Write the structure tokens for this entry.
Amino acid sequence: MMNWTNCISAQRTGYSTSTPHLRTDYQRDYDRLIFSSAFRRLQNKTQVYPLPGSSTFVHNRLTHTLEVASVGRSLGDVVGQKIASLVEADETKNFYIHDLKSVIAAGCLAHDVGNPAFGHSGEKAIGSYFIKHQNTAINDKPLRLYFNEAEWKDVTNFEGNANALRILTHHFKGKMSGGLSLTYTTLASLLKYPCESTAVNKEKHRKKFGFFQSEREIFKAIVSDTQMVRDSENPLVYRRHPFVYLVEAADDICYRIIDLEDAHRLKILSKKEVQNAFISVIKEAGRPEDNLDRIFSMLDNLENDNEAIAYLRSKCINTLVLEAADVFIDNQEKIISGRYNSTLIDDVEVKCQSLKDIVTLSVNKIYNHQSVIKVELAGYRVMSGLLELFVPAILSNDPDSIEKKCLKLIPDQFTVAKDASSYEKVMSILDFVSGMTDDYAMEMFRNIMGIEIATHTV
């Protein structure tokens, strides 16, 4: 049975021993992620809005992720101090007092590394390609017949969460075994949907899936070593690890609040709309730390509209961090036993109804804004076009001259053996394409399609 002691594991992917070091195991996880190429590539991946140029700053995936990690660290710190009072062993107390915040911050850094270029539009493009071409013959064999049921579910429902686990743990050619060799504790904090693709349903922990069939064994090792609660063996489903709720809450807080701040900077929403939304959340929370008279006094002294919204954003985030931490502690027995069937922010919404209004406002005026829709449509076209070239080429038994040239464009780290399964070959293409930044994917698409001819520069 999972408890606050045995849900922690310093075991790493790739090797089992830990060497003495100035940093703790979990600080090392954070640092490895910061210096990883998968993390750096987030700089050129769209968060919500297309980048408008140097005149106006909006968030990309990298800045969003850094802010989520900052919020996650605060959540981990607040909750860690409280959980420490519930455990007896000194080593476990030390983890919750000093290390939980590093685990949550690291989990937040990694939560989006599996997202392809153009975000959810890129995910949809990948899945739709396989559905659209399932009857397309390659070597006189329909594409669908190259996969078993579980593998087909993986590729037709391509999922960024599952892709994150693959990126962080897969042994790519010429690289270290075990991927980034992160601890099982940090990896468990990422398993927002701890089930396989064939198990997806409407339940919170099964709305999407958390691992591809290629990572089935490492998934089983992680859930076993961190004592996660099994829900089903076939299909394979587990209840969430407790730390997932903190990573998820940090992400929920940031995108709900900061998307509104970006919308104000881009003049999609007025100062009054955003200000009223933020103040309503703070009022409804009614926390003693929030002195509304002082907040209004500060706003009166801030003549710069962007600075005023930034001030309210910081107050709102702080309020939601404390509210989410309270929900976690209030439900800690359900959470550790796998019986908690909500999310922290969903439960905060019960008290702060304005959070629901923010979601409605975001859907109506932000996520369906013309600039956002244009990026989604462009991304869909680009990702689909790349797959139409690379998937048939990798599966062909006798590639023609054009297919051979396509295969030469694939970096060595993504190549697989000739006798690899069809699933492994296609996953290598998805590794390549999903790892692209928005700019790189667009550039390659233009070059290959003849829209723009590549030039060599020294």
The beta strands are 137-138, 141-142, 230-232, 237-238. The chain has 20 helices and four strands. Confidence is low (pLDDT under 50) at residues 49-56.
